[in-house]
Each structure stands twice: as C-alpha cells, then as structure tokens.
Amino acid sequence: MTATHRAAPINGSSRTKEELLSTISASRLGTWLSCRMKFYFRYLAGIPKKPSPAMRVGTIIHAVLQQWNLARWRKAPLQDDMVKTVFDHAWANAEKEEAVNWQGEEEETKSGALNLIEAYLKQTTIPVEERPEGVEVSVERDLGKFGLPKLVGIIDLVRQGGRIVDFKTTGRTPDPEMVLHTTELQTTMYSMLYREATDRKESGIELHHLVRLKTPKIIITEAGPATPRQHDKLLHLIGSYVRGVEFEDFTPAPGLQCAGCEFFNECRRQ
C-alpha cells in the first residue's frame, strides 16, 4: 500500500479537484512529477507567491519575443527602437500589475534583460522575413478516449514547415542532452497538440535558450518529431497524474530541489 500524505486544509484553494482532472498542461504535470506537495500548495491551496526577479525577466522576454513574432506574421517587422519601446511597455505593465522585490537591483536587471533580447535578435537563426505559421497558439486535444483529461497548452512559435519553437531563459549554459531529457514531457505535449490542430506531423522542435550571463548567450537545441514511444510515455504519465489526484496523494518529495522551492516554509510546517 502506498502511504498518502494529506496536507492540512488551507483556505483560498484556487482550483477544485474536479477542475484539475478536467484538463492537464505541461506546467501542471511537470509540477506534479517533481513534487506532489508543491503541486498541492500551488494548484489546490492556491497560496499566492510574488514572482522572483528571474521569473519577471522570463515573462518580459517572452512578451517581447511574442510581439517580435507577431510583427513578422503581420509582415511589419519591428524596426530600430521599436523593440525597446515594446520592452519598456511590457516591463512597466508587469510592474504595475504586480511589483517584484528588486532589492535595489531593478535597473541593472532591466538593462541586462534588454541586452539579452537584443543579443537574441542579432544571433537568432530565424530570418526576420520568415512569416510564422502561428504565434502563442492556444491548442487543446481531447484525450477522453484514453480516459484522460483534455490536454491544453500554448505554443510559443510555429515556424514555416511545421517547426515548433519554445523560448526559455536561464542563468547557466544548458547541456543539450540534459535539455532534451528535461523538456521531453513539454515537447511531446506540443507535438500532440500541433498534430491535433493541423492534422500534420511537426517537422521538428527547437528550444531557444536565452542565457543570462555578463555576455549573453543564445543556445539552440534541436530535436526531431516526437516518436510513438514518447506519445505513449506521456499518456502513461498523465494517467499516473489522474490516479494520484483522484486519491489525493500529495506526498512530498524532499531533495536538493527544496532549496529553491517557494513553498519551503509551508512544507516544513506540515
């Protein structure tokens, strides 16, 4: 018998168990697989947490690249200082919506984020004149025939020829093999969603890492189309998620990852 840890009820739950069993996303499944207690705090208890500086930078970079790609889709690429204007607008809006505790480093962080975007736009392998097939595409796939929740997700970019692109920010240079391993769940989901939306097989997947270093780096990791084995593996993982949520198995997973967990204090009090 598997031991089940029941967290004490916390007021202000953001979602019901039924809601969590009706749909599944890459971020939710990834959290579940990393630590079920963290999943509980984030999705069922809905404990609010302010975004960290790194999270804010990632959000802003995604917002600017979204506008860059939409401008290409409209066949009116961003020119000269337009990128900085979009960046400043996105930064101000994000801070207005929810301010970050910068500890006196906002301007330095902001300057570094803009430098990172500019470095990406100079080094990217995506031609400015190439019109995207889709930008920030919201897609879903009904997995009811497998007895599973509806799969939902947003694809950052689909290039010409059905090439899926996902943008990521990181503070360290990624290892290609580790990237392919740790993002397999997400990229396989994108594969399923793309095929559902287009009735075509993706031509490949690109992971574009924008690395926050003193001298910014751009690392692109490429993968081929998802395999049948990867699709089967994903369905199996979603099935495990469904069974765990149904039985309210919110078992913690203590480890090195706890050092960076935003729910460390809540977990220690259980």
Describe this structure in words.
The chain has one domain (12-270): Lambda Exonuclease, Chain A, CATH 3.90.320. Strand 3 and strand 4 form a beta hairpin. It is α/β, with parallel strands linked by helices. Strands 1, 2, 3, 4, 5 and 6 form a six-stranded mixed sheet that branches. It contains ten helices and six strands; from the N terminus they run αβαααααβββααββαα.
Q: Secondary-structure element sequence?
A: HEHHHHHEEEHHEEHH
Q: Tell me the number of helical segments per DSSP (H or I, 4 or more residues long).
A: 10
The overall strand count is 6
Structural class by SSE content: alpha/beta
Q: Tell the overall outline.
A: globular
Look at the structure and give the mean pLDDT: 92
Q: Report, as a whole number of angstroms, the end-to-end distance.
A: 22 Å
Radius of gyration: 20 Å
Largest sheet: 6 strands, mixed
Strand content: 15-25%
Q: Spans of 5+ residues with little confidence (pLDDT < 50)?
A: 1-13
User: Can you give the helix content as a percent range?
Assistant: 40-55%
Number of domains: 1
The name CATH uses for the topology is Lambda Exonuclease, Chain A
CATH architecture identity: Alpha-Beta Complex
Class in CATH? Alpha Beta
